[in-house]
From TrEMBL:
GO molecular-function terms, A-Z: serine hydrolase activity
Signal peptide extent: none
Cross-referenced Pfam families: Abhydrolase_1
Name used for this protein in its record: Alpha/beta hydrolase
SUPFAM superfamilies cross-referenced by the UniProt entry: alpha/beta-Hydrolases (SSF53474)
Organism: Variimorphobacter saccharofermentans
Highest taxon, organism lineage: Bacteria
């Protein structure tokens, strides 16, 4: 399905019945990373799996910014008249969720993020240098965004008033101290570090994500 928002066409797939649940993927991915989780989640929620701008079947633009992506989702919620949906965001999807919940405190009912960072330096040094080296060669706009953004402040995190679950793997590419900082800065948040998991090992094409979302929404 296509939804016209914020001057672009945003592709999404909808399935299931119940309270609306938005799923947002990471940089360079599509909604298809949730292919194993969606059939089960659809038994509990109306699931909206979205391709972010420049990904999958959604429109591309010349330059990417997380704030624009957050506005896309705000417009999507208004266009489809979704009433305080739950939002789960992985990696870049989590960044979008943080921005959205801080700018529009009553738009969502609950936020679940995993492997998100608030500044580029929240990524482990080795990973950050690797991305910098790759982008020096390929000059990919979405990777350029990731190396320059986000710039989410502590004050912005403190504006998030809805119940929030902060997830990360113990072997995540985001620094553990940074994940702990995010959870500590959001007033009504819970932190869950998943032992033995990497950045997306429990998310990409994996049913482990299902119980994490169900536990966070009880």
């Amino acid at each position: 399905m296509i939804c016209r928002v914020n001057s672009i066409n945003l592709y999404y797939e909808m399935s299931g019945v119940g309270k609306p649940l938005i799923l947002l993927h990471g940089n360079g991915e599509t909604h298809k990373i949730f292919d194993k989780a969606i059939p089960i989640l659809s038994e509990h929620f109306t699931v909206y799996a979205i391709d972010s701008r420049g990904h999958g079947q959604s429109d591309s633009v010349l330059e990417y910014h997380y704030d624009d992506m957050a506005e896309d989702i705000k417009c999507f919620i208004h266009e489809l008249k979704l009433e305080q949906p739950i939002l789960y965001g992985f990696s870049d999807g989590g960044i979008i969720g943080l921005i959205l919940a801080s700018k529009y405190p009553q738009l969502l009912s609950r936020l679940i993020i995993s492997g998100a960072n608030t500044v580029p330096d929240g990524i482990r040094t080795g990973w950050l240098r690797l991305f910098q080296c790759i982008n020096a060669v390929v000059k990919e706009p979405k990777m350029t965004m990731m190396l320059k953004e986000p710039n989410i402040t502590t004050e912005m995190l403190k504006c998030i008033v809805i119940p929030t679950t902060v997830l990360a793997g113990s072997r995540d590419m985001v620094k553990r101290s940074h994940t702990e900082y995010i959870a500590d800065s959001i007033p009504n948040s819970k932190l869950n570090i998943l032992q033995g998991e990497g950045h997306g090992s429990y998310v990409l094409h994996n049913t482990k994500l299902v119980n994490l979302i169900l536990d966070a929404t009880k």
